[in-house]
Write a structure and sequence with these properties.
InterPro entries: 6-blade_b-propeller_TolB-like, PhoX, TAT_signal
Number of strands: 28
Pfam families: PhoX
Protein name: Transcriptional initiation protein Tat
Organism: Leucothrix pacifica
CATH topology: Neuraminidase
Shape: globular
Radius of gyration: 22 Å
CATH class: Mainly Beta
Structural class: mainly beta
Distance between the termini: 15 Å
Bound molecules: MU-OXO-diiron, calcium ion
Number of helices: 8
Length: about 575
């Protein structure tokens, strides 16, 4: 360990062992506390979480949602700030243990989704929720949204309730997030398809719905039984109004969230925003599905600090691109290019099925196929290094690599940044844009890490050289840089610790050094959780981390309260006992 410490200039803690315990495990000298858990009221007219009933529709509308994922902390002073946190989905068997049968069950489920906004203050050294603070807000699957950008008003977005095609209701399944330099929050709609169903079992949604996984059965949420807009046989355009990046102003609780169609419609993971050399805004975007693509958006205009009217246009006017990775120079490195998804270019014509730019954006996956984008092993979060012009994307896993495509998608040959058939463990690809410019047309890529299990396998499944029996993991998902350039890696993988995953323990968070490639395990989460989402106080001395779905699928967790409590997704706050910067 002394030698490892000397290798990394940015990491000052020791790698910790794997764990299967139902708690948070951290390196020596670190502590954690719960900041907020599912069901905790943000308003005094709410009620404390009821472990027996798990609340009602009304109580959930006033409380922190379920399954927190991406988040940002907008700090306003040394001791005051506002959190914006995605509530991706609900654990149906936990939130509604008697099944989702009644209108109130559905109301509660819809309110468990969306985004939670709440102020915090530093009280006796602990960041603490401020009930009833003026920025506190719940955005749910029923909140009014504005649809903006090139696809707004298109016929494909018009419904019985909205003849304008510009006003929809709700955002749901927000996975990762983004944060703009002008102070807004980006919530990213991922598995929006799982909420639509058809009361007409013979309804045929066609190739476009198929490619997006919109079918006649939902995933068990039963929203369509009480809210007809989720019935695709009656409202076939409704799914076209979901699958976007949603921009939210956390400083104005009366503002209407804006869906930004210019950034394309797919199963968005996160939105990593960087300002390019010339001031244009670049947003990197993953589409988390086996064999789907990695995207990049470049704004037409430039970011101007303090000019809200200018900055409000940056995510409406710009160009979307999709990544094509070139032939590998060697097994783990190569070149690539960004291909423009603009109507009339690169074969995106009426004959190819696209009448307009609106259709290119609404069916971005199909546009990506036309231009020959590279099928990826489930692109999850993208993270840009703040200390160097380079970016990373977690490719979480893909059991179908080399075997079968996504429904209606492209073949998925083994090669390039997706070098393993039936990929169980995942990898992180890194690219360096040409001319140190995130807006450049081309890039060089390599694999930062190929996850694996060197205790079980000796072939390519053992992983890259920076994976050892001591730090191994599977399924990297959330990846987020801190200010100092430490790459935090969160996992959403197999937590059985058996067979291919023997010795890997619960889902966890590791820290990577971009320069040396060294990876150390920093935190292990509780039973059956996923670790996802991170934010920091401005001084870097508190790190906030998301613990999602502890105890899912009936697994034995009572996180975070212990005893016989109901397991609850939570945001935790990690501090160093000596008051230092986390990870340093
Ligand atoms: Fe919600 Fe791709 O993770
Ligand atoms: Ca994820
Ligand atoms: Ca995942
Ligand atoms: Ca998740």
């Amino acid at each position: 360990t002394a030698q490892a410490k000397a290798m990394s200039k940015v990491m000052g803690f020791d790698n910790i062992p794997m764990s299967g315990a139902d708690t948070i495990t951290l390196p020596k000298g670190y502590s954690w506390k719960t900041l907020i858990s599912w069901g905790e009221p943000l308003f005094s007219k709410g009620v404390p979480f009821d472990h027996k009933t798990r609340g009602t529709g009304e109580s959930q509308e006033l409380a922190f949602g379920d399954n927190n994922d991406g988040m940002s902390f907008f700090q306003m002073s040394d001791d005051h700030g506002v959190f914006v946190v995605n509530n991706e989905y609900v654990n149906r068997d936990i939130i509604s243990p008697n099944g989702i049968e009644t209108a109130d069950d559905v109301r509660k489920g819809k309110a468990g989704h969306g985004v939670s906004v709440f102020e915090v203050k530093l009280v006796d050294g602990k960041w603490t929720l401020q009930v009833d603070a003026k920025l506190n807000r719940r955005i749910t699957a029923d909140s009014p949204m504005e649809i903006t950008g090139p696809a707004a008003g298109d016929d494909l977005l018009k419904t019985a309730a909205d003849a304008s095609g510009t006003k929809s209701l709700g955002t749901w399944n927000n996975c990762g997030n983004g944060r703009t330099p002008w102070g807004t929050y980006l919530a990213c709609e991922e598995n929006f398809n799982g909420y639509f169903a058809s009361t007409d079992e013979n309804f045929d949604g066609g190739a476009q719905k198929k490619r997006y996984g919109v079918g006649n059965k939902d995933w068990g949420y039963n929203w369509f039984k009480f809210d007809e807009r989720f019935d695709i046989s009656k409202h076939p355009n409704e799914p076209n109004r979901a699958g976007y990046i949603v921009e939210i102003d956390p400083m104005d609780p009366t503002s209407t969230p804006k869906k930004r169609t210019a950034l394309g419609r797919f199963k968005h993971e996160n939105a990593e925003v960087v300002v390019a050399k010339d001031g244009r805004v670049v947003v990197y975007l993953g589409d988390d599905e086996r064999g789907e693509f990695l995207y990049r958006y470049v704004s037409d205009g430039k970011f101007v600090e303090g000019d809200n009217a200018n900055n409000d246009k940056l995510l409406n006017e710009g160009t979307l691109y999709v990544a094509k990775f070139g032939e590998a120079n060697d097994e783990l490195a190569g070149k690539g290019e960004w291909i423009e998804l603009t109507h009339g270019k690169n074969g995106l014509t009426e004959e190819a099925g696209f009448k307009s730019q609106a259709e290119v954006l609404i069916f971005a996956r199909m546009a990506g196929s036309v231009v020959g984008a590279t099928t990826m092993d489930r692109p999850e979060w993208v993270a840009a290094n703040p200390t160097k012009v380079e970016a990373y994307c977690a490719l979480t896993n893909n059991k179908n690599r080399g075997k079968k495509p996504n429904a209606g998608g492209d073949e998925t040959p083994v090669g390039g940044p997706n070098p393993r058939a039936g990929n169980l463990y995942g990898q992180i690809v890194r690219w360096t844009p040409a001319d140190e410019d995130h807006a450049a047309a081309t890039f060089d890529w390599d694999l930062y890490v190929l996850a694996g299990n060197p205790a079980v396998h000796q072939d390519i499944r053992k992983g890259s050289a920076n994976v050892t029996p001591d730090n191994m993991f599977n399924s990297p998902d959330g990846i987020i840089f801190d200010k100092a350039g430490r790459l935090w890696i969160q996992t959403d993988g197999n937590y059985s610790s058996k067979e291919n995953f023997a010795g890997q323990g619960n889902n966890q968070m590791l820290c990577g050094d971009p320069e040396t490639g060294e990876i150390r395990r920093f935190m292990v989460g509780p039973v059956a959780c996923e670790v996802t989402g991170a934010a920091w106080s401005e001084d870097g001395k508190t790190m906030f981390v998301g613990i999602q779905h502890p105890g899912e699928k009936g697994k034995p967790s009572h996180f975070p309260e212990g005893g016989d409590s109901v397991p609850r997704s939570s945001v935790i706050a990690i501090t160093k006992d000596d008051g230092g910067v986390i990870g340093a």
